Sequence to fold (1676 residues):
Amino acid sequence: MSRISSLSHPANAGDRAGNFAAVRALSEGLVAPLSEADATLQSMEDASPAKWHLAHTTWFWETFLLRDHAPGYTLYDERWPFVFNSYYEAEGERIDRFSRGMLSRPTLSDLLDWRAHVDAAMVSLLDREDLAPLIDIGLAHEQQHQELLLTDIKHALFQNPLGPAMWDSPPPPAVHTGERGWHRHPGGIARVGHLTGGFAFDNEGPAHRKLFEPFALADRLVTNGEWTEFIADGGYAAARLWLSDGWGWVRDHGITAPLYWRDDEQFTHAGWQSRDPHVPVTHISYYEADAFATWAGFRLPTECEWEVIARGTQGEVAAHDPAAGNQLDRAHAPMPKGGTDLFGDCWQFTRSAYLPYPRFQPAEGAVGEYNGKFMSGQFVLKGASCATPRGHSRASYRNFFYPHQRWQFTGLRLAKDLP
Amino acid sequence: MSRISSLSHPANAGDRAGNFAAVRALSEGLVAPLSEADATLQSMEDASPAKWHLAHTTWFWETFLLRDHAPGYTLYDERWPFVFNSYYEAEGERIDRFSRGMLSRPTLSDLLDWRAHVDAAMVSLLDREDLAPLIDIGLAHEQQHQELLLTDIKHALFQNPLGPAMWDSPPPPAVHTGERGWHRHPGGIARVGHLTGGFAFDNEGPAHRKLFEPFALADRLVTNGEWTEFIADGGYAAARLWLSDGWGWVRDHGITAPLYWRDDEQFTHAGWQSRDPHVPVTHISYYEADAFATWAGFRLPTECEWEVIARGTQGEVAAHDPAAGNQLDRAHAPMPKGGTDLFGDCWQFTRSAYLPYPRFQPAEGAVGEYNGKFMSGQFVLKGASCATPRGHSRASYRNFFYPHQRWQFTGLRLAKDLP
Amino acid sequence: MSRISSLSHPANAGDRAGNFAAVRALSEGLVAPLSEADATLQSMEDASPAKWHLAHTTWFWETFLLRDHAPGYTLYDERWPFVFNSYYEAEGERIDRFSRGMLSRPTLSDLLDWRAHVDAAMVSLLDREDLAPLIDIGLAHEQQHQELLLTDIKHALFQNPLGPAMWDSPPPPAVHTGERGWHRHPGGIARVGHLTGGFAFDNEGPAHRKLFEPFALADRLVTNGEWTEFIADGGYAAARLWLSDGWGWVRDHGITAPLYWRDDEQFTHAGWQSRDPHVPVTHISYYEADAFATWAGFRLPTECEWEVIARGTQGEVAAHDPAAGNQLDRAHAPMPKGGTDLFGDCWQFTRSAYLPYPRFQPAEGAVGEYNGKFMSGQFVLKGASCATPRGHSRASYRNFFYPHQRWQFTGLRLAKDLP
Amino acid sequence: MSRISSLSHPANAGDRAGNFAAVRALSEGLVAPLSEADATLQSMEDASPAKWHLAHTTWFWETFLLRDHAPGYTLYDERWPFVFNSYYEAEGERIDRFSRGMLSRPTLSDLLDWRAHVDAAMVSLLDREDLAPLIDIGLAHEQQHQELLLTDIKHALFQNPLGPAMWDSPPPPAVHTGERGWHRHPGGIARVGHLTGGFAFDNEGPAHRKLFEPFALADRLVTNGEWTEFIADGGYAAARLWLSDGWGWVRDHGITAPLYWRDDEQFTHAGWQSRDPHVPVTHISYYEADAFATWAGFRLPTECEWEVIARGTQGEVAAHDPAAGNQLDRAHAPMPKGGTDLFGDCWQFTRSAYLPYPRFQPAEGAVGEYNGKFMSGQFVLKGASCATPRGHSRASYRNFFYPHQRWQFTGLRLAKDLP
Fold:
């Protein structure tokens, strides 16, 4: 998912210093329950250590803001950019294959010192209007890494046979929704993509017209209980339900349930917990989502179908209310709780491949280099999960993952054609 | 690529017996220059031995026509369906992982006897109107395997350090086209997908409306000479030109040129031949096509853009004139020769992922099972190559391959946005 | 196993021309039942196609005899040495990784022509006394490849789900031996290694003294029936019986029986045949042999223990009587038949790693380059199998394979300490 | 290397409690310079985290002493044996494939508490004569893990591009030895294996007679400077110098120097340090040692040759003087310093495969289960390294590793035949 891009237009310029402080503080809050060793773990190539996320986001501010725009600024440690740079080829050679999981040094304490140093230096830049676009990108970038930090550490703790918890908080009470209802759409032409003045990544534009046939989108997510029926009905053993690549994946990896399931339990940031049948299923792959939809007699929505419903029911700006929706903060483990919102429980797979919008132009330079770069082999997800920072997502947001990946809070909202 | 599907409407019913005889004879003509050992080779998992193609297509007729519809027909050898069935899970369990390249038995002669037996038995079914749709599928299926047979054996012979030739015929004289011109399209709404009465695979439908922005499609393919400039300019070493997955592929496999290139030569069905700078480049991956387009300052077309230009310039029905366009027959090695036709030189990558059209419904049963099954991770190619049997393709045809595959005659036609 | 080396002393000089003709004819006789396609198959990296064995042995004669010693000889085809050379780095660069299984050309007929050409040219060299050592190596080398040809083609045909037979001949009647008896040895000092005047590979020398403790060697091989008891007793599931590497191999590959076993059948050169409990078990790995011996309360012999018993019971020269012992010829499939001979049923694992004898010196030059080269990671096997050409083995012969390999006719003769 | 076995006879019974305290304290001293995160790192499957070594050795005492012999003892945490057990299949099922590198919990502090608890409980058992053999094994076992802890953490820190140091101490001054001299042996029969009354692992016995030919063993180790000459002479590019498996390893992994070399530096526990040409080369594989010996015109010794020289020059008991020889303690990084001792600089490869001595019988039960288990594919090393705890080794000691492994302090002492 990680990527950086140009933005459209700065929003909330007046709050920029406050936003900066809040975002930076949240990152540090998220690692507060972790030990030095927890924060160093890397469980797979797709994931990074918590410490690395703290450092990489700081590298961003130091490189693209302080180095380039703060007169006289010198790097805190000139060896660190090499280690904490990620995929920005334009920013210079990176070592070919060192494992981020071997970075016991610098220590967590060293990195927190670096963060404080950079935060102090940033103060002088936060009110420069010419830097506002870059700063907004930096904030969005750090928020993306906050979600990755949470899903990566969950995956790492899961590897431990002792099943350690990061938070002791119990899961929030689930919202017990009833029968599945439908948001109906009559078809026709509508505009999609980034429409308003707020911040957006370059891949959300240009806004453009799209033709729709009549369709409907479910008003709630598929639940753990429904998934249990799918399993009981032999869903993981029925080749005819699966995409060809998906069936190969199921057999090669012996997949028989969503990630993190064990008997009637589920691994969470609060350790192993009993599984509530009423909350949305999470940690499924695209292949699983597609097979379930086929089994259920429905289909996945396209990304544009999802988007027009989101706008229609929840509006463009308020789509993902920063003041509500998910419980991510320093004191609680992120857990989906169900309900009818399109945002805040889990990312929802669409059947749309992640491809450029018509007339898409990647931004220039290293900062904007990398959204277009991922436009093969991945699928778009819409919404926001319980681990997405409040206010980070919107109707036009395009998240993307490979069809086999499932360590994010990924779920499924069904769709169907209307006559 | 291999897939089978429902059809729309039978065409040329009067010629069905003649078509059957011609298609069956062409398959056998294609293997005439091969030895028993050549016909047994399998060079990679994506490819199959020539003998297997001969047998698999025969299995199709025996299974879906003779077994199901010819009263009293008994299988020629009841152990063979297990071996020559391909991906039709609905037709029963297949062995997990035997290598088709180990099938020295049955012999080529055994298989030709089987073909003759099946052809004789088929005579009584060829004029049954109720079977016409199935027969048309069988013909299209066998034509697809003719192209695969040719590209698979080319890949197998290429593995031999001695560089053996299958045909001695020299490559045809190239058509030296001039400067790149453009087919322009003003944008607006147009219908795409299978529109007319002829045969089509299920993935070409349903026909539907599509919104276009103004764009242009090049009137000729990118040539070997242009590709040489790309290489000379460091195209394979410039990370910024490549998709992220493509760059990984380039580095993991040490890619520095199209498949089959060596110095100023190119491996062909007629062995190693000098490379003509004026003919279309072939045997490139999606990743390479995309990087080239970026380097050249253009982009790949979408599948629908390609289709509306094909209809506009060449018409729906005559799009791929069976009486012209490519030189595939028993006496000549398939080689692209250039020119301005959209069909007949090579398959052209589009930037469209291979996904279902709106309201797509896979056909019922084993025959129609498998088009939808491949709808993840692949890209659509349009046109037809010099190895495509005459009359097999059309404007709505959707070929598809993974972005790293390049053993087909794959090439590139540039596109650009218009104001 | 394939390797070449210096020899001690030529034997049977008078018969050299006759031996040459007989050995060369046997190679061609072995491929007589094979089709062009059979002869091209390569089922794994350890194996080579039958055609390649025919060609590689011919390359040996052409290179080390004709090229180096026949005045005016020109290579039959100068591109072929590159393709049919094997591991002789000293003979020039070889291509890094082409698959021998892709060599449909040259054809079998081309290669037989080459063989005839080389055989004719060899006539003038066969009575040159200075070349006798090289010729004896060439004969031993071709005999080794005869055995590999047989075991490689068996492995290739086994991959075919149709289970084709190479020979129709039924297995020979088994010799039903009774209770296991023992060859006892009182311990002390004995000489081992190549002692007499006949041909031997360099790794069989120098002859040297060895200290023995009292021990006994079984007078017959372990049988299929005994192996079935091992399986029934949970032998493949009991970690404590296995070497650590062996247990890893069992689990990684899901091993539950010797290679080529299926229900109560066994794959042979004559296809699937019912398995005789009275004949020696074959196609087992070192790991399996060691686990069985542990289970049975015995151990494997050392290579020197085996050798001194072989000398004591059967003599040095007559150890492997050319006129008896195994049934390898053009008309019969090789099958172990049991009995009390140390030679001729199967190769017998010893617990001795394949290492240099004291004061071992590899021979100079390409011909003698490669026995020492394999002296890590492999174990010594003694005896000779039903697929070993008559007269090829002897008491001092050291065959060697990796502990996981089992496509040879490998079996097991138990040993024990005596007080 | 890790293994446990029966012992011969307890030594220094009077000091057992003191030894116990000293050994336990040393383990903790070794991790004192490590952070919580350092101690959690696992850089490869062959290595384990420092924390795991601390825990695994404690698990040994708790399981085989306290659980089995201390009345009323209850496990400190009943979930931990599952996590800190290693290869003792007899002690119950272990999880199939969890990565030890993911064990951020229990924390280092948790584990030190466990150690203290176990140490306190052990007091009552340390003077029980019946347990002396088990205790001596426990001490030897913990000493082995001390060396592994040091070599494993070195390998882990090496992965970090920042090259962190664990100790700041500079390397000790090297001993500059002169020309290579030789220990000569006249040949004949000698006894080898564990002869005296002290502790020994089961694989060192039974003592037995061995026949020797006259030979000589170098009186010092091969140095960094000599290795540089080997490199300069193209040693890593000359196929003829290498074992076949070794040459494959060199090419597959692009090996061009010993592990930890970079330009004229070498990675050490004290970070990157300049490389002294006069000290022994270390961190080489068997393949490299063998190729060097071939290049130099010598050979590797056998394990018995090394042993008889060690006895002759240094005596059995005092072979590895606890009061001298290496500098391993809490304050200094282990570094070879050269000299003429057979012990204390690095482990020395022999050309002997690790196989059972005649009449070897593995000890009964879980404690003694595992020496025989490793007797395939590995080579014996003799001596002791700068990271071996003082007093741990002896002339009969048999260390063993696979021929490609080189993260231990492994080096090379040449041998040659005498007339």
Q: What stands out?
A: Chain C touches chain B at residues 35-41, 43, 79, 82-83, 95, 98-99, 101-108, 156-157, 159-162, 164 (CB under 8 Å).
